[in-house]
Amino acid sequence: MARTIDTIAEEVRTPSPVALLRRRIFGHYGLVFGITVLLVIVLIALFAPLLAGHDPYAQDLAARMKPPFWMTGSDPDHILGTDHLGRDYLARLLYGARISLAIGAFAALISGIIGTAMGVAAGYFGGRIDLIVTFLINVRLAMPVVLVALAVVAVLGGSLQVVVCVLGLLLWDRFAVVMRSSVLQVRDLEYVNAAKAIGCSTRRIILSEIMPNIANNLIVVATLEMAHAILLEAALSFLGLGVQPPTPSWGIMISEGKQMMLFEPWVIAIPGIALFILVLAINLLGDGLRDVSAPENKG
Amino acid sequence: MSEQATASILELAAITKTYQVKQGMFAAAKPLHALGGVSLRINRKDVVGLVGESGCGKSTLAKILLGLEAPTTGKVLVDGAEIGPRERRLLARRIQPIFQDPYSSLNPRKSIEDIIALPLVVHNVGDHASRMQAVTKMLDLVGLPARVRRGYPSQLSGGQRQRVAIARALIMKPEIVICDEPTSALDVSVQSQILNLLGDLRQELGLTYLFISHNLAVVEHLATRVAVMYLGQIVEEAPAAELFAGPRHPYTQALLDSVLTPDPALSVPDTHLGAAYPNPISPPSGCRFHPRCAQARAACKTTPPPHVVGAGGHVDCHLYGAATN
Questions:
Q1: Cα distance from B70 to chain A (closest Cα, Å)?
Q2: Which end of chain A is more exposed for a tag (fewer CB within 10 A), N or C?
Q3: B77 CB-near residues (< 8 Å, 6+ apart)
Q4: CB pairs A-B closer than 8 Å
Q5: Please, what is the average pLDDT of chain B?
Q6: pLDDT averaged over chain A?
Q7: What is the pLDDT of residues B109-149, one digit of tens each?
Q8: Which of A190, A203, A211, A213 to mutate to test the interface with B (most CBs of B within 10 A)?
Q9: Cβ–Cβ of B152/A17 closer than 8 Å?
């Protein structure tokens, strides 16, 4: 039987998907910068005990408020100076990265699980489930995050675990909204119908047909929410209702420095800049992932 | 043809499908009768062409056959056994679809071999090695080079994608394939390749097709029987040769008249279908076709047309009824 084979000429030899992906990632400078900076901060957080050289809790009242290295009267032993209790500022900064990263990652994880489950269920099943989820999203959006977080932390007491849980339970709204609309876009495409006609279970359709096609949106939201959670933790700690002293947290460092702000601005500038760089890196990463994974930028 | 000899493999018995349509936020939902009592018998190894205008219910019928939608009333019988609306998996082993748009019917995140092997995975057929062998066989059968198997849909042309869709539909060895406009999204040059492939595969594997199309030339080329749908009802059904030689229902006649010829000297054909397609929410009384029918009579406006069974088919029209005065 004579069967036609599509002409070879029409299939131009394309590079493998992996090579294409590599080219897209390394061609995106914002993404490369974000990944590099974030990676450096993660390594610093992991190896803080090796890098710090000082105990972040050790007080030395004889060496209080030593200025950092670029100012006169600095102590070469304390590169970034010491705080009002004589604790090494560099050590507290490095250990503080652990708190920020942990809170950002776990809060984004918890809220991501909650929001994705709700959004996917609403988008896929529609009808009454969609109504309920949309209502819950609206209720959540009507609550001011900082005030609710303050109230809950005030009642339960501030600790790392409480802050992670509170932020995780509050920041799922964007996940739910984005996942719901992404699923709505994909749900009625014919490959989903084809999977149904093949006899796939609902679970398989959601996990293997729908989720891989909306995962890029999920990753982008997750990075943005991680940055959001880190900023909120700093804000809560600054207000004294986040992680409690003497834990080294960037928010607490800013909070403790605020009395000296007028005469020693570096006390606030150093943790502030660290916070700025971390959030910038995460946002650049999310932005770059969006660009790289967007279908219109393929090829 | 051999209608008496072979039992019908697929039978639709008085299928209706009603959607509740809301027009405006506070308006009460109105029923939209997408299908109003469709009965159709498909014999083994037949190719039944289902033709009709856009919106006449062809695709709704296909969805019901695939188990994607449940009929409001009526039954789907496969080999004489009724298939309930919940038995999607059972239906899936015997009826498989080929969709219209090969650009959206393949999951862009899966490799070609994963797409083709998915039915085997879902129905727990064989182990990984035997599935991959089956994929190799299917790729060969639909005329795709073996090296595309690790590729992704975005690397293939439209015709190649439709071949992948055909391979996926046939890997479970179904008996019935529902082709929902399988060529309308393809280039003209590729259309004939796919149609010939479908014809060859039918011979080779003994398949039965329900071929939904509004391209009458394609239907004439491939179909053994043709059913003409109008506003959720089958108005005429006959062997293909007969129907194209002597269409009986005025709507069928108009459809055949509407086919464009490649000769630009001839102007756009006049179908005599004056009025626009009616709103299916409030279908015309009597015969649903009467506002557009050139041969409409008084009875057409009031009474539904009789079901006239003729040689090898039927036509629902007052013109052929016994009670015509």
A1: 13
A2: N
A3: B10, B11, B12, B13, B83
A4: 90
A5: 82
A6: 85
A7: 888 888 999 989 988 888 888 999 999 988 988 888 888 88
A8: A190
A9: yes
pLDDT confidence tier of residue A36, bands split at 50, 70 and 90: very high
State how far residue A88 is from chain B, nearest Cα, in angstroms: 50
Within its chain, how far is the Cα of B213 from the centroid?
A: 6
CA B221 to chain centroid, in Å, comes to 15
Spatial CB neighbours of B258, under 8 Å, sequence gap ≥ 6: B269, B271, B273
Residue B63 within any structural domain of the chain: yes
Choose among A14, A191, A197: nearest Cβ to B107: A191
- Return the DSSP state at A210: I
What distance in Å separates residue B136's CA from the closest CA in chain A? 15
pLDDT tens digits, one per residue of B165-220: 999 998 888 888 999 888 888 888 888 888 888 888 888 888 899 999 888 888 88
> Is B88 in Cβ contact with A298 (below 8 Å)?
no
Q: How far apart are CA B201 and CA B204, in angstroms?
A: 5
Asked if the Cβ–Cβ distance from B88 to A1 is below 8 Å, we say: no
- Write down the H helix ranges in chain B: 58-65, 88-94, 112-122, 128-141, 158-170, 188-205, 216-222, 240-245, 250-257, 298-302
Contact A244, A161 (CB under 8 A): no
Cβ-proximal residues to B143 (8 Å cutoff; 6+ apart), any chain = A3, A4, A5, A6, B163, B197
Exposure b/e, B280-296, CB count within 10 A at least 16 = b: beeebebbbbbbbbeeb
Beta pairing partners, A148: none
Q: Return the CATH number at B303.
A: 3.40.50.300
Q: How far apart are CA B144 and CA B167, in angstroms?
A: 10
Cis upstream peptide for B31 (omega within 30°): no
Query: Chain A interface, mutation test: which of B91, B107, B149, most A Cβ atoms within 10 Å?
Result: B107
Overall number of domains in chain B = 1
Which residue among A3, A10, A295 places its CB closest to the CB of B157?
A10
Residue with tokens 């006609």: A197
Distances (CA, A) of A165 to A126, A175, A223, B121, B294: 29, 16, 18, 39, 73
| Predicted confidence (pLDDT) at residue A266 exceeds the cutoff of 70 | yes
B2 is a domain residue: no
- Burial class from Cβ neighbours inside 10 Å (0-12, 13-18, 19+) for residue B130 reads exposed
Q: Is residue B240 part of a domain?
A: yes
Q: Name all domains of chain A by residue range, CATH numbers in brackets.
A: 23-297 (1.10.3720.10)
User: Looking at per-residue confidence, does B266 or B243 come out higher?
Assistant: B243
Provide the pairing of β-strand B73-78 with B8-21. antiparallel
Interchain CB distance below 8 Å, B197 and A195: no
Q: Alpha-carbon distance A82 to A67, whole Å?
A: 7
Instruction: Quote the domain boundaries for residue B92.
Output: 8-320
Break chain B down into helix, strand, coil percent, rounded to 5.
Answer: 35, 25, 40
Question: How many Cβ atoms from other residues are within 10 Å of residue A172's Cβ?
Answer: 26
Q: What is each CA distance from B104 to A139, A194, A197, B168, B201, in whole angstroms?
A: 36, 10, 15, 14, 23
Whether B147 is covered by a domain: the verdict is yes
Is the C-alpha dihedral spanning B275, B277, B283, B285 positive or negative?
Answer: positive
